[in-house]
């Protein structure tokens, strides 16, 4: 394998190198929350009337998610699960209605374009139990894999989506969770996209029972999730490092191996544009695996801890350089939706 360059539910109703400002994670999170709550006019618009807030009971916890039906309903459509990053809630349970990812991504638009249902699940205490052992989700013992499986099943029940044609997208903590769900629910997840979040090292010994396509995107200027891997900023009680994640290249290699991808890989570069937010991208892709699954790793030169294509206000762009010459939501849908394979075809 050629190694990529570091490059029971109920309804409730390379160009010039960009150097980011040195990052204080608390400052970044405060800035991000403030921008998301008060600057929605600069982001993607959506209609709440076109969606419902649903709930399921998982291990005694009421879990919520927003479900958006397709513009043109028909049976057999795929479901897109969109997972937000870590949200500061002071340990309080989330009761639904978090529109973060609807504002920051174009998945509503892409779902209409490609034909899909979209679900925006809420992490129980604002963070997913992604397997690293450092989030409030991990510490609370919630079963997020069971929750997300229930979301998939409810969508199939209400909208006739194919459970084994689920596509998962996530950023940061949501990206780590996307890796975990793809590993532990590969009979459901046909493809996933992870932005600014690589494979948690604690999950390395797991093996998916089915091949899963993967589009992995990381920025070279991401100080929170370094492109070559590293540890969480949340240390143990004695100051020990915890929550190690693999780098972009190693994550892609492991998924390519699990999928049985061919040894021939292709590399293509997207040059930077003339604008300050048009970043160069090095794109690596492995040969086809079982069921035609694919694995791609994109190194975005100069990008910080952010979502490509988001209309980011200047306050956040100064902290986290964000490319506008491509849209991660659109790229994931183009990558995954036209050639989703059944669980039977992807079975190992």
Q: Brief description of this entry?
A:
The chain contains ten helices and ten strands. It has 348 residues and is α/β, with parallel strands linked by helices. Keywords: Signal.
Word description of this protein:
- There is one protein chain.
- This protein is an alpha/beta fold and 348 residues long.
- It has helices at residues 25-38, 100-104, 107-114, 136-140, 144-159, 173-184, 248-259, 314-317, 328-336, 343-346, and strands at residues 52-58, 61-68, 79-83, 117-121, 166-171, 189-195, 213-219, 265-270, 281-286, 295-300.
- The protein has a single domain (25-340), classed as Alpha/Beta hydrolase fold, catalytic domain (Rossmann fold, 3-Layer(aba) Sandwich), CATH 3.40.50.1820.
- The chain contains ten helices and ten strands.
- The protein has a ten-stranded mixed β-sheet, sandwiched between helices.
- Strand 5 (166-171), helix 6 and strand 6 (189-195) form a beta-alpha-beta unit.
- Residues 5-42 have low confidence and may be disordered.
Summarize the topology.
Elements: H1 25-38, E1 52-58, E2 61-68, E3 79-83, H2 100-104, H3 107-114, E4 117-121, H4 136-140, H5 144-159, E5 166-171, H6 173-184, E6 189-195, E7 213-219, H7 248-259, E8 265-270, E9 281-286, E10 295-300, H8 314-317, H9 328-336, H10 343-346
Protein name: Esterase
Organism: Nocardia stercoris
Keywords: Signal
CATH superfamily heading: Alpha/Beta hydrolase fold, catalytic domain
Summed up, the helix count is 10
- Order of helix and strand elements from N to C terminus: HEEEHHEHHEHEEHEEEHHH
CATH architecture: 3-Layer(aba) Sandwich
Strand percentage lies at 15-25%
Unreliable residue stretches? 5-42
Span from first to last CA? Answer: 18 Å
Q: Name the strands of the widest sheet in spatial order.
A: 1-2-4-3-5-6-7-10-9-8
User: What is the total number of structural domains?
Assistant: 1
- The CATH class turns out to be Alpha Beta
Radius of gyration: 19 Å
Number of strands: 10
* Structural class based on helices, strands and sheet pairing: alpha/beta
- CATH fold descriptor: Rossmann fold
């Amino acid at each position: 394998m050629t190694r990529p360059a570091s490059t029971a539910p109920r309804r409730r109703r390379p160009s010039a190198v960009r150097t980011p400002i040195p990052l204080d994670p608390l400052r970044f999170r405060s800035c991000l929350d403030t921008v998301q709550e008060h600057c929605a006019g600069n982001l993607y618009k959506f209609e709440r009337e076109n969606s419902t807030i649903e709930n399921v009971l998982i291990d005694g916890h009421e879990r919520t998610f927003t479900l958006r039906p397709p513009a043109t309903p028909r049976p057999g459509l795929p479901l897109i699960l969109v997972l937000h990053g870590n949200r500061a809630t002071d340990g309080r349970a989330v009761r639904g209605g978090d529109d973060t990812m609807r504002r920051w991504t174009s998945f509503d638009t892409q779902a209409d374009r490609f034909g899909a249902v979209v679900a925006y699940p809420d992490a129980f205490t604002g963070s997913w139990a992604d397997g690293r052992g450092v989030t409030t989700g991990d510490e609370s013992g919630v079963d997020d894999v069971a929750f997300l499986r229930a979301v998939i099943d409810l969508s199939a029940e209400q909208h006739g989506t194919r459970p084994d044609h689920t596509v998962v997208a996530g950023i940061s903590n949501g990206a780590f969770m996307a890796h975990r769900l793809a590993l532990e629910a590969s009979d459901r997840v046909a493809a996933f996209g992870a932005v600014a979040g690589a494979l948690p090292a604690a999950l390395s010994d797991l093996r998916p029972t089915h091949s899963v396509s993967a589009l992995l995107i990381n920025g070279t200027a991401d100080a929170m999730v370094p492109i070559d891997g590293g540890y969480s900023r949340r240390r143990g009680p004695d100051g020990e490092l915890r929550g190690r994640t693999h780098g972009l290249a190693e994550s892609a290699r492991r998924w390519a191996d699990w999928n049985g991808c061919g040894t021939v890989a292709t590399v293509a570069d997207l040059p930077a544009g003339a604008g300050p937010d048009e970043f160069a991208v090095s794109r690596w892709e492995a040969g086809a695996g079982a069921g035609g699954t694919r694995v791609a790793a994109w190194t975005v030169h100069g990008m910080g801890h952010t979502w490509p294509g988001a209309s980011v206000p200047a306050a956040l762009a100064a902290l986290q350089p964000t490319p506008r010459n491509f849209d991660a939501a659109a790229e994931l849908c183009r990558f995954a939706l036209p050639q989703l394979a059944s669980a039977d075809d992807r079975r190992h």
